[in-house]
Amino acid sequence: MFLLEVDFTNHVVLVATLNKNGARAIIGGARYVMTQPDQAEMAFTVVDQYQGQGIGAALMRHLIGVALGSGLIMLSAEVLPDNGPMLKLFERCGLPLSTRREAEAVHADRSSLSTRSGRRRAVHDPHGANG
């Protein structure tokens, strides 16, 4: 099953957890899957009741950090056109964003992971993916 074939090289997954009644519950997740040697496609999910609390932003920040540590220079994603909060999060992330809209999805590409200023903004910008 592909979603469970995580090797932390070609397929990286991070989760956000919450202690609920003494047990850990997964409330969000982020992943990237390599599409080329220095590029990957990323995806995010946060349980509805926890959306809007910065969990997606924290996951994005950490996923970008892992991508940087792995030498990736581009991350891309497909976002539903009506998912305004996620589109805004991509815009706030602090890296140049190129998008192309189609009826079924918005394709978002972050292409400056390889630059020093791009790395610094992606991981540390308090008004970007951290906020």
From TrEMBL:
The keyword Signal does not apply. InterPro entries: Acyl_CoA_acyltransferase, GNAT_dom. Residues 101-110 have a biased composition (Basic and acidic residues). Pfam families: Acetyltransf_1. Residues 1-116 form the N-acetyltransferase domain. It comes from the Bacteria. Transmembrane segments: none annotated. GO terms for molecular function: acyltransferase activity, transferring groups other than amino-acyl groups. Keywords: Transferase. The keyword Oxidoreductase does not apply. Residues 101-131 are annotated as: Disordered. Gene3D superfamilies: 3.40.630.30. This is GCN5-related N-acetyltransferase. It comes from Methylorubrum extorquens.
